[in-house]
Write a structure and sequence with these properties.
The chain is α/β, with parallel strands linked by helices and 233 residues long. The protein has one domain. The protein is 36% helix and 17% strand. The chain has a six-stranded mixed beta sheet with strand order 5-2-1-6-7-8, with helices on both faces. It is globular and about 55 Å long. It comes from Thalassomonas haliotis. This is WbqC family protein. InterPro entries: WbqC (IPR014985).
Length: 233
């Protein structure tokens, strides 16, 4: 049994979906502190040949709340129309605009205003569109996990799910020691995405943009073909 654990991100980059596809179960943290500087409610798209941010507006709240305790701003009802119009302007001439735009429209018109639930729904819809069937597990559905820190939290989640192999994005190399995992009876691997390129209107390629960009320029089958383009270290 292989698992991975990640924060929820709004329309994350392709590597996020590669990680989901690489494991048998994928755990999404909902009891994790929201960070303004992170990628939980924002991402990057292609606009006029350059990268540009899109963001989900949030109601003002304490910086110490969990993601599942944050909510979309009341302005989201009109802001999503602005986001859709902006995406249409940026990508209307992309080869798979029609299919991708329809999917994104369904995602943005979700009636859920809880930040975690909104993002979780968006991930679920993208997975269905791409034919990825990995089960998703919400971290708070597991017992006695929240009070633990760092590696101990991962070890307990692996224990409860019966996992023997934990896969982390390559950025975790500096955080986690394979010897510590081995001592818990766990294998530890790091997923390094290959150098993936596709045509973006003939501009110099911009990597690691939102899955929105990938969807606009690639068919679901082409994206599925990209999912195994990684190395485990």
């Amino acid at each position: 049994m292989k698992i991975a654990i990640m924060q929820p991100y709004f329309m994350p980059y392709l590597g996020y979906f590669q990680l989901i596809d690489a494991v048998d179960q994928f755990v999404v943290y909902d009891e994790i502190q929201y960070s303004k500087q992170g990628w939980i409610n924002r991402n990057r798209i292609l606009q006029n040949g350059k990268d540009a941010f899109i963001s989900l507006p949030l109601k003002k709240a304490s910086d110490y709340l969990f993601v599942k305790q944050r909510f979309l701003a009341d302005s989201w009802q009109r802001d999503r129309e602005k986001m859709l119009n902006r995406l249409a302007c940026c990508y209307r001439k992309a080869p798979y605009f029609a299919d991708a735009y329809g999917l994104i429209e369904n995602i943005l018109y979700c009636q859920e205003n809880n930040l975690f639930d909104f993002i979780f729904n968006s991930i679920t819809l993208v997975l269905a569109h791409l034919g990825i069937t990995t089960p998703l597990v919400i971290s708070s559905s597991l017992t006695e996990v929240q009070a633990l820190k760092a590696e101990q939290k991962i070890f307990e989640i692996c224990r409860q799910l019966g996992a023997k192999h934990y896969i982390n994005p390559i950025g975790g190399v500096a955080l986690y020691d394979k010897k510590n995992f081995s001592g818990q009876g766990l294998s530890l691997s790091f997923l390094q995405t290959d150098s993936i390129r596709y045509r973006q209107f003939g501009h110099d390629f911009l990597a690691h943009l939102s899955i929105i960009d990938v969807l606009m320029f690639n068919s679901p089958q082409e994206i599925r073909d990209l999912l195994p383009c990684y190395r485990l270290q």
